[in-house]
Input
Amino acid sequence: MLDASNFPSAVPTHHRFVGSAKLIALLTLASRVLGVVRESAYSQFFGASPLLSAFRIAFQIPNLARRLFGEGALTASFIPVFARTRAAQGEESARRLAGGTFTLLTAVLLGLLAAGEFSLLVVMIWRQGPALSLTVLLLPYMLLICLTAFFAGILNAEHRFAAPAIAPMLLNVVMIAAVWIGGSVMRLETYTHLQFVAWSVLLAGVLQLALQVAWLRSCRFRMVLNCAWNESGVRQIMRLMAPMVVGMSALQINTFCDSMIAFFLVEDGKGPAILGYAQYMSNLPLGIFGTAVATAIFPLLARYIAAKDLDGFQRSVEAGLRTSLYISLPAAAGLMLVASPLVRVLFESDQFTPSDTRRVVLALMLYCSGIWAYAVQQMLVRAFHSMENSRTPVRIACVMVVLNFALNMLLVRTPLQEAGVALGTAITSSLQAILLALTLNRSLPGIRWRSIMLSTTRCLLATLLMSTLVWVLRGVSPLGPVLPANDLLHLVVCTTLGLAVYYAATRLLGLEEGMIILGRRKA
Output
């Protein structure tokens, strides 16, 4: 095993990983707050209407492509090969690798975009509908966001995380402005209003791409553009990427299937709209913390593998898993406990009825039951891909995608309706996380699972204490009609005291993750 000290610029410390995760989390938090404002704007102008369902379906398609070909599979395959190429062959070879990958990705995306637009236009000859027409309008965003994600991957490999985390903020700002201008200033009819928002998405895509390119230039990284797609590095990235399309993106594929099943099988047409609100709220802790940890640690894992430092790699996987569980367990419990007042405060309006609130709350609570699994999955899949083992997570993901589809088809026909879809996704995600952990244990026997389980048990005890407090606080709320001011007060009090109790409990139980996250102790 090589000594990591021989690679001073290649392998950053655990402390740097935690610092990067905190930066990503803070910027992502700002983006998610803007996302909440965006979702609230949706509820004010569109409610949970079938037209909003059509928009959500159309918008999910380019976002699924982003997960598959951008920040998901391509980034996961690109970063380890890029890190190894730079370490073994130098900066110039790394720049050629980036340039060749970029030109190949652009060619593939342009081909997919042309084929997709042509197919949609052919289908529209026989069948018209808002979902199809909005998809035609939004599909070019696939090219913009995938290229944005590719440049973000290079920046992540350079340990520059700010621009990639800022990019979603641009999207939210532009979309919020479009929703408000279209509804309050121009007073557009609902479908025209949604078309106006779709055009704003394309504008945001251009701005997101420009930001990544500008930031990359400020780092003085210059790609060497070429079409040498047969070079070993590019071929290796494509070989790794093919199975990663499923392995890294199982959750996104399942989420897309959720919406499609709800679109066709929930009779009132509101299914995707309801699920969209619930998915976004359940993704708040995952996007802010779970993704931040996994994104920050992935380049570190890749560089440990490049340096052949297996012990450092295993300790980093442990740190990532413990941090993910430390954050995701209380986040899921807390979100479930305050789901009802949270949805009322954020969304309920003339367009968004109390009946819509009840449906969103039920779906949200069921999605929350799988938050821990979503966070753990991201860590475990990245561990496998850092070792260039794509087959294992892909085999597991394929089975889980099929199981998720079967469960969703079964549960959506129950009285749960779209909430049954959320339950099916949470179940399959939990099974996937467990299977990934069991399989990784065979590949990396040096990981101290006993320590991880002990840490998780303490987190669960602290979460139980926090949940009991929040439950009591919710139970002694004033009787009578529930007013928005009361709901807001409950949210502030419950969240503040819940966080304080959880942190204090984990400190008393001997967990150091909270101190590390706050920067009071090194990892």
About this structure: Residues 12-517 form one domain. Residues 1-14, 477-484 have pLDDT under 50 and may be disordered. The chain has one domain: 12-517.
